[in-house]
Amino acid sequence: MIMPHYVVVQVILKEKLLGTKSGNLSSLEKAINEQASKGYRLHTITTASSGSKGFSGGDRLQATLVFESLA
To answer: In 3D, which of 39, 59, 30 has the Cα closest to residue 47?
Structure first.
């Protein structure tokens, strides 16, 4: 039996100062699509908030994505 191969990717999502929509969800989408093009599928995703980074920073959310090889 062949054991599956895993890849772990971390993406930092920075929330805009005003409003609640993420300013860079496209970076999350890009990370998922990049791994999918290499033959991986998203296995697990977890998130953790790191709080505000000052007046102009907004909140940050760290997403950890685990991808599993389809081969």
So the answer is: 59
- Can you tell me which residue has the tokens 């033959």? 39
User: What's the pTM?
Assistant: 0.71
Q: What stretches of 19-58 adopt beta strand conformation (E)?
A: 40-52
**What is the CA 30 to chain-centroid distance, rounded?**
9
Tokens for 27, please give them. 């970076």
Q: Mean of the per-residue pLDDT values for the chain? A: 79
Q: What are φ and ψ of residue 56, in 5° steps?
A: -95, 0
| Separation between Cα atoms, residue 11 and residue 19, nearest integer Å | 21
